[in-house]
Amino acid sequence: NETTVHQNEDETEGFDQLQDFEGFEKIYVFSRDGDIKELPRGSTVLDFAYHVHTEVGNKCYAARVNQRYVPLTYTLKTGEQVEILTKKDREPNRDWLVNSLGYIKTARARDKLRHWFRQQ
């Protein structure tokens, strides 16, 4: 049936487009303890911090990747080991929400950060 063939082609095309967005848009990094974390491609160390736990993100003051200090805007790559350094009295910085500064790229981190500022 000709209609069925066209429907299947449309479904396949949609699946291919989904793979383009989903399948190749992830990175895999290691926590300091060796746990593997999956994040969207383009994630920063601050995105990683919020992925681990909201309080880790909120209290983050520095980060190390592969045992070297990096800026909080550092974009992670697959296979890197990430360590987030926190301080008890640290609070998030409003600059982290400014897109052009590049601190956070993921909606998850942005939502957690906005929630923190709404509570203040």
From TrEMBL:
Hydrolase recorded as keyword: yes
Looking up InterPro entries in the UniProt record yields: Beta-grasp_dom_sf, TGS, TGS-like, TGS_RelA/SpoT
Q: Which UniProt key words apply to this protein? A: Hydrolase
UniProt GO MF annotations: hydrolase activity
- TGS domain residues: 23-86
Domain of life from the UniProt record: Bacteria
Q: Establish whether keyword Ribosomal protein is in the entry.
A: no
| Family to which this protein belongs | Belongs to the RelA/SpoT family.
Protein name per Swiss-Prot or TrEMBL: Bifunctional (P)ppGpp synthetase/guanosine-3',5'-bis(Diphosphate) 3'-pyrophosphohydrolase
Organismal lineage: Bacteria, Pseudomonadati, Pseudomonadota, Gammaproteobacteria, Moraxellales
